[in-house]
Amino acid sequence: MSRFVIAPPPVVGLPVRGAEGVFPVRRVYCIGRNYADHAVEMGHDPDREPPFFFQKNAENLDASGQFPFPAQSADVHHEVEMLVALKSGGCDIPVAQALDHVYGYAVALDMTRRDLQGQMKKMGRPWEIGKAFEHSAPVGPLVPASEIGHPSAGEVSLKVNGALRQQGDLAQMIWKVPEMISYLSEFFELSAGDVILTGTPSGVGPVERGDLLEASVEGLGEMKVQVV
Question: What are the residue boundaries of the Fumarylacetoacetase-like C-terminal domain, all occurrences included (predicted)?
Fold first, then answer.
């Protein structure tokens, strides 16, 4: 007999390259303004200030290859990022031990209802309405760190209908992956199944229905997403 009064929702699972099983997702943390050039284009000082994070929902992750243009927005932007998936966690994780908790990496997009996010910023309100909507995090297959190691440099890029929109390098991240994990663990108890979106380089911009997005991170391959 189930102890739940209604049927529990299914666990979100991400595909893993070369594996039949999927990676179960618990929480989704996203770092903001983690590339200096993107901070500048968004009107902020690129100096190394303490990092800040917002969250998406596990159900926002979508490996289908399609991005349904969302309701209640006329200005939806693309943001290409590298995703980090954790196999273990804890509190107060030292920087030197942070990568021991990483299962693997993937190409991802942080799709943003920029008009709604802008409204929330002006009112000093949370960003979820602009960030944590359905299908807002297209993601490619996870690549285990046991196969590729831990990428700390390499091109990050995004093309829209074949035209290059975003281009940067993982080495340009203000806060590196071990530092992000360590910092988050000071405020949250991290756990297996948590994922982190690591920020986007400059060049973010709007998408329209019918657009083809081609996102890539060196060593992780390319992800194609159709805006429908």
Answer: 28-228
Distance CA 53, CA 198 (A): 10
In contact, 159 and 165? CB cutoff 8 Å: yes
- Phi/psi at 75 (5° precision): -145, 85
Using alpha carbons, select from 69, 72, 48, 94 the residue that is nearest to residue 199: 48
Q: Where are the domains of the chain?
A: 13-227
Do the bridges between strand 28-31 and strand 195-197 make them parallel or antiparallel, or are there none, so unpaired? Answer: parallel
Question: Rounded to whole angstroms, how far apart are CA atoms 140 and 4?
Answer: 33
What is d(CA 15, CA 212) in angstroms, rounded to the nearest whole number? 21
Q: Which is the CATH superfamily of the domain at 13-227?
A: Fumarylacetoacetase-like, C-terminal domain (3.90.850.10)
Contact by Cβ (8 Å): 25, 13: yes
CA 56 to chain centroid: 9
Q: What is the pTM of this model?
A: 0.94
